[in-house]
Amino acid sequence: MSYPSPHDRSRKDDEDDPVEQMISRTGCAELHYAVQECMAEHQDWRACQKHVQSFKDCMTNFQNTQKERRKAQLPSSGSSS
């Protein structure tokens, strides 16, 4: 019996996976998949550090952008008038 690759992004169940959905919203999905594919190929996270670092940097940038957006939406607490 043939099973689909766990890295096949055309699978229907990926669409229902909340983690996959969250990562897709960050704009870092392709980097996440690159980490997964590297891990599947090498079976050693040390061989995938370039991919891991790229994904980490992307996620950090996304989180920083989100923080800045939330800050910009907060009403200024120092002004009264």
UniProtKB/TrEMBL annotation:
Biological processes per GO annotation? mitochondrial respiratory chain complex IV assembly
Q: Which SUPFAM superfamilies match?
A: Cysteine alpha-hairpin motif (SSF47072)
| Composition bias, Basic and acidic residues | 1-13
Annotated region Disordered: the residues are 1-22
What are the coiled-coil residue ranges?
A: none
Record-linked InterPro entries: Coa4-like (IPR039870), Cys_alpha_HP_mot_SF (IPR009069)
The record, for PROSITE patterns, names: CHCH
Using the record, list the residue span of the signal peptide; answer none if the entry has no such feature.
Answer: none
Q: Which residues cross the membrane?
A: none
Source domain of life: Eukaryota
- GO CC field: mitochondrial intermembrane space
What is the name listed in the Swiss-Prot or TrEMBL entry for this protein? Cytochrome c oxidase assembly factor 4 homolog, mitochondrial
- Native organism: Fundulus heteroclitus (Killifish)
